[in-house]
């Protein structure tokens, strides 16, 4: 046990210097300073200046590369490019440059801090005995003095240039971490482009919104087709001409109790069945539909006995076509794909966080973290017997946000 006196009046504490409070605080915390020696005992030691310059150089390197990172992040051409596009080489350098500049900035700051500790801070060996329980008032008072002593012995206060460099490097390091988060912040109301298979940039639009513009949208399944080898007099090359990635779905294509993932397919992008044209190239347009992040829909054909038990959602009683129901595949929890359908229980399952939705009760959540039903797509059949969208979703697809009322 320590025999250090712990009861002092406010007047006694106020009359103590920082050095006395520091020594007292160390003793009260059970700390024994076994060894302390300044790195540079002689004022204006050339070695002191050399050490400061070395640390300053590393801090400056950190600052320069942090600024370079921010410049690349803000001004470099980041828009996606593919083979054949102008500026592809510059685009391919974007991510490597972000990694290189941020990595060097962080590394240089780390080296600067290590060099400062190793070459400038006083050499010290201290031993502390641990104790349990909360600290006394006197311990809290002396802590401030200990912190002041740490700042004083660090000599950083009198090294204004070095302090500015290290501080600037630390601030810019923080920006290299925080700045990329800015790319995830978007105005949910801002229209960014003309409505297409990806919507128009707002959170409540998708490829299915095209139906509101008078576009006939088929429910189409993905065939997984890829570019094919084409041989001509000029040689062989890959082509997507005549390749159909999305094909229209008829009711008879789905067995009772079955499920199919479908995507919106505009009438002008159809290339299957009686409309197949081997010279037509719709592959890119169809891939845009597949890649639309709110386009995937689960088309479910209930068994007739189960369909008679369905509880329709108010106002959506005519959204289904016979035993066929179409629900958004985007989970209302955090947007994972609800890719599992349990035929025996008629439950739709999200494998990410185990949310479950009842297909017999307007895809209402019955288990897991999801709190909202999956939006239902109104469907019907056209005069040729293909399933089509009878309208758009009446609510935003995906995780909840403030515009949702369901």
Automatic annotation (TrEMBL):
Keywords: 2Fe-2S, Cell membrane, Disulfide bond, Electron transport, Iron, Iron-sulfur, Membrane, Metal-binding, Oxidoreductase, Respiratory chain, Transmembrane, Transmembrane helix, Transport. It comes from the Bacteria. It is found in: Cell membrane. One of its GO terms (molecular function) is metal ion binding. InterPro entries: QcrA_N (IPR045603), Rieske_2Fe-2S (IPR017941), Rieske_2Fe-2S_sf (IPR036922), Rieske_Fe-S_prot (IPR014349). Its main location: membrane. GO terms for cellular component: plasma membrane. It is a multi-pass membrane protein. Residues 294-388 form the Rieske domain. The keyword Ligase does not apply. The chain crosses the membrane at residues 55-76, 88-114, 162-182. Belongs to the Rieske iron-sulfur protein family. Iron-sulfur subunit of the cytochrome bc1 complex, an essential component of the respiratory electron transport chain required for ATP synthesis. The bc1 complex catalyzes the oxidation of menaquinol and the reduction of cytochrome c in the respiratory chain. The bc1 complex operates through a Q-cycle mechanism that couples electron transfer to generation of the proton gradient that drives ATP synthesis. This is Cytochrome bc1 complex Rieske iron-sulfur subunit.
